[in-house]
Design goal:
By secondary structure, the protein is an alpha/beta fold. It is 41% helix and 15% strand. Helix 1 packs parallel to helix 10 and helix 3 packs parallel to helix 4. The structure holds NADP nicotinamide-adenine-dinucleotide phosphate (NAP).
Length: 283
Amino acid sequence: MILDGRAVAGKIKAEVAQRAAELSKKGVQPKLAVVVAGEDPASAVYVRHKVQACTEVGIASEVHRFGGEVTTETLMAAVRGLNTKAEVHGVLVQLPLPPQVDEEAVLDTIEPSKDVDGFHAFHVGRLWQGRPKLVPCTPAGVMRLLTAYGIEVRGREAVVVGRSRIVGRPMAGLLVNAGATVTIAHSQTRDLGAVTRRAELLVVAVGKPGLIDASMVREEAVVVDVGINRLPDGRLAGDVDFATVAPRVRAITPVPGGVGPMTVAMLLVNTLEAAQTQLGGGQ
Ligand code: NAP
């Protein structure tokens, strides 16, 4: 079974569009502000997709661009300004930031009720307390995709490869909350294959094409490939060797067309929910 993120994301977008229209009828259009610094080409593509997706569902957006030499203080001031703008409901700082910028300081400045990426310590804490508010978009998208295909998580042996703040860690938290038994593997893990072969549900978020081959995957597993890698010939590939792994497993996400579209869809969901929470009196 191929887990079609594009199709599921399409349905989520249609729901968001309907809810956004209802809010607009009440005189409030949800709005996302995106802060971008530097000239990273991948970031430019991601920001374009996010803005386009907002437009499709009736969420307003504005992009605040800064040069590659920007300081931490300038970005913090920009975020503070957006925190106080009542018509902005979601604030997103596109990563990576230029090397001289203190990324954590900038992210920590975002008012939690507007933090639609869910990276602020407030949201990390809430997630690990088992009472999440705004959840990072990629792992939230993975959970929605599993739900859409009726894939049970409770009681399952789950392995997450990667421990980043953006994907691996929140992914593990969501899976624990959903009742899975979770192992987090990373670059220091000895014998990665021995760990991944245990997984009934395997989520891979590393950024190394072909890292996971058929010998590392349990038969009948559900495999979610978060990786997005640009190959020398220009094609996109995940971290999982799709051609050899797909025939062995119960379900797998393709790259592209799996987790990627879900991430953007969940950003729209988070922006809408942030708007509704703020209108309803805050956190
Ligand atoms: P990241 O911050 O670079 O983290 C990568 C993780 O992989 C780290 O925890 C690292 O371990 C681990 N790792 C590196 N080499 C490994 C190895 N040989 N064996 C096991 N673990 C290894 O990356 P990220 O931001 O989480 O992103 C991961 C991938 O997902 C990238 O390809 C990115 O483009 C993609 N991504 C996709 C979406 C989407 O929407 N589909 C969204 C976000 C990211 P250490 O912690 O020990 O260094």
